[in-house]
Amino acid sequence: MPRTREAEWSPAAALEALQHEGDDEMRLAIRRYLGGRQISDADGPEAIRRELGRLLSATPPRSRRGELATFLLDRPPEPPAWMDDDLVARGQKVFVDHGLEMATALFFTALPMAYAVEPAATVLWRLSDFAGNRNFVRRVAETGQLLIDVSALRGPDGFRPGGAAHGTCVGLRVLHGLVREVVTAQGSWPDEGEPLNQALLLSTLLDFTLTTWAALEKMGVSLTEDDMEAHLHLWSVVGYLMGIDHPDALPLDLDSAGELAVLMWDHNLVDNGEPATPEGRDLTAALVDGTRRFMPLGWGRAPQTLLHWLFRPVAAPDAGGTLAQQPWVLPTTMPDALAVPAPSPILLRLLDAWHELNCHVRDLPLVGRAVRWGTGRAGRLVIIGLADHHTPGRAPFQLPPELRRAWHLPARVPVVRTARRRARAAVRSVR
Question: Could you please report the per-residue DSSP string of 5-62?
Answer without folding.
Answer: PPTT--HHHHHHHHTT---HHHHHHHHHHHTTPPPP-TTTHHHHHHHHHHHHHTSPPG
